[in-house]
Amino acid sequence: MKKILGIDYGKMITGLSISDTSQVFSFGLKSIPTNKLMDFLDIFIVTEQIEKIVIGLPKTLKNKNFLIEKYIQKFIFKFHRKYPKILIDRLDERFTSKISFYTMIELGIKKKKRRKKNILNQISATLILQSYLAKKNKKN
Length: 140
What we know:
Elements: E1 3-8, E2 13-19, E3 26-33, H1 37-47, E4 50-57, H2 69-82, E5 87-92, H3 96-106, H4 111-114, H5 117-139
Parallel strand pairs: 1-4, 4-5
Antiparallel strand pairs: 1-2, 2-3
Helix pairs in contact: 3-5
């Protein structure tokens, strides 16, 4: 089985995660500057067997899209044009940043390191993908 890539898209920093080949577990991959995301994916998609990407869908508590969604839509359009065979799924990412922040506290990550968005985004991408995998595997 091929792998799934999780994306927590940010205007400046994007967090990435990847599934195992059984598509049961999500692992934090890295966070990269968003302006270098496509360059990274061009190499990564060739070296890893990615069949699908799951991108967080940022919603407010009133079920409205956050402003970042327009940037995500541009990325999805660009990605889909370049990789039409790779499926794209979305997952409501409400509360992933809060859960990620509290996870960092639970893990004992110092306050100074918690301020770094790259760690937060990577954990959020992992949570997005793990939630997606759990839902997918529950159906099967």
